[in-house]
Structure formats: C-alpha cells, structure tokens
Amino acid sequence: MIDIYHNILWPRYKGAVFSEAFSHAHKAGHKVRFFHISSTGYGRTAYSGVDTSYHRYPYEILFDEPYEAIPTWKMSLRLMREVWRSKNRLILMPGYHRVEFWAMLVACMLSGKRRAVFCDSTIQDQADHPMKRRLKRFFFSRCDGVFVYGRRSAEYAIAMGADPTKVICHCQAAALPHSYNAAEANRIRIANAPPAEAPRFLFAGLVCRAKGIEDLLRAFVEVRRQLPAATLVLAGPVVAADQLPELARSLGLGDAAQFLGAMDIDQLAQQYSRATCLVLPSHTEAWGLVVNEALNYGCPAVVSDCCGCIPELIKEGRTGHTFVTRDVDDLARVLLKATSSFADVQATMRNCVDVVRKYTPARAGRSIIKGCQKILKRART
Question: What is the pLDDT of residues 163-179, one digit of tens each?
Fold first, then answer.
C-alpha cells in the first residue's frame, strides 16, 4: 500500500523511526516497503560506520555506491522505474531539492499514484532564489501530503505552496543507545553535572565553520575572561581545512578548548551527562537532533535562533536558551546566563525530559503511518 524512500541508510534515527513505522503499519494490517537509495554518502562514515542495529524493518538498498558517486541520470531512471512499477498506491519521497526527486514526482503523476514528501527545511535556514521558490511551490502543490519535523518546517512548507490540511507534523526523533535508561541517566547527571563557577560547555557534531564553531570559540574567550575555570568540549570529527584547533590556540584558549574527535553514541551519552549545556551555534540547522539527544540526559541546550527545533524543544530558561545566529557577543552573553539558569540540576533535568518525551521514535513512526492513512483515506473519498 505504501512505499517509503530515504536517501541513505546511515542515520540511526531514521532506522529507529522507520522501525516504529513498520511495526505500527504491521499491527494496523498495512503493507509498507522501505527503500534506501544508498548505504551512505557525503562523508557520513567520518562520524561512524553504518550501524544497522536500529533498522528493524525490511528494506532494499538501490545502489552499492556512496550517494554522491551515483550519476544523477542513473539514479533518476532507477527511481522512476521503481515508482512506475510499484503496485502500491502511495509513494513517500525523501525530498524535493534534487533532480532524482523530481523524477519520482513525474513518475507518480504519470502513473496516477498518490505522493507525499519529507520536508526538513525552515524559512530560517533557507534563503531561496525566486526561481527556486517557484519550483518548490510547484512541487509541494502537486503532493498529497508533506511530512515535517515541527512548526518551523510546517510554516515553510505552507509558504512554499503546501495545503495546510495536508501537512503532517511530529516525524522526527533521536535514536538513543540501546542501553539507555532514564532513571540511570538521571542518577549519572546528578552525580556529574559541573558547578556554576566551572561550567562545561559541549558541542556535538561535525566541527566546522558552517556549524558556527568559529563564533563559539570567539564567544568562549569572553566566557573564560569572566569564568576562568570554564571548559569547552567539541565532540566530533574536525574539518581540517577550517583550521579550528589552530584558531583556538591563536585565541589563547589552550587546554580549555578540547577537540575530542569522533565519538560513538555511548561516548556522547557520557558527554551529555557531564555538560552544563549543549551548544549548537549553527548558521543553518533544519532541526538539530543533538538537542533531542541532550535533553534525554537532562542536558539543556543553547542554540542559534535559526534552529528548527525552536519552539518545540527549546523552552526559554527551562530547557535552553536561544541567541542571534552569528552574533558572538550575544552567544557569550547567553552562555554566561546558562550557568545560572540551569544551576538547579534536578529541576532542569525534569524540564528537559518532560519536553523531549513527546519526541520519541514510536511517536514519529506512528505519525508517518497515520499521515499515510489520512492521505489514502482522502483519496478514497
């Protein structure tokens, strides 16, 4: 009845969400098939290898090569053929911004199949050329459903021509370690949270300028001036060309700025438990799954105001703070503010867990299948 496509197999969170979607569809008696265009791509293996332990659903991988190595024409023809031959009534496409996804849309329209699309963009992280906007308006207006992460991506989809009644929310969630236990996470955080006078700020992700790391390092200089015992931990692979460790040294940060390199999901869990807060200073961020991860460990987040997880996950002063994107002074101000805002570790942890419990793979999976059911029911009527 339903074909669901995604670009690469690599993301654990998609594995967790699609597993729940498959389980929910199976219980409801619906047939659903999953396709991944490739196993990995765009340097994802720099984070870690492909961990398929979260992918508890049947799936087919269409190409053996990394995504970016597949010729566009070859990918487009294969996807058009898969859509055309499918006996299922609904095709859920992975996106709208690449030629191969347009090929899928055309195949759906020519074969008369219902079609929907995942949209993870927001107005805050997109500055579209007028021609791109017109193309997106055409794409979204020809879809029977648009699956979005939260309010900001919903607003973007509607602004781009999607029918508001066809927008389906809450399709995003993080994949936690298999060993995750909320009570144990609470105990560990209470035992390890740093004192306000010696805060420990954490960044988790690809360490590059696009993620706002230069802004973070420069803001941290001011934080260190006022709180000499403060430390900044950067967990993730470093883009060598951006020379950020060299910048940290030139700013005189020394050992106060620690570049830990790539870390696995269990190692990151330890970092969340020991941090005053997560810092996500991205210049563009469709959502920010690391915020989901951090909140599950009672770790609040300071995020740039372009992040898509605002306002769902960031409750000002309770689960996090926001600052003006690219504004180094504002970032420094908010980091200093966080040391007092989140001094009550137990209260902060309760706030974080209370908010993030609404964003689980189970709920996201159910939202996808219920959205598909809604599209098919509308088609029948």
Answer: 999 999 888 899 999 99
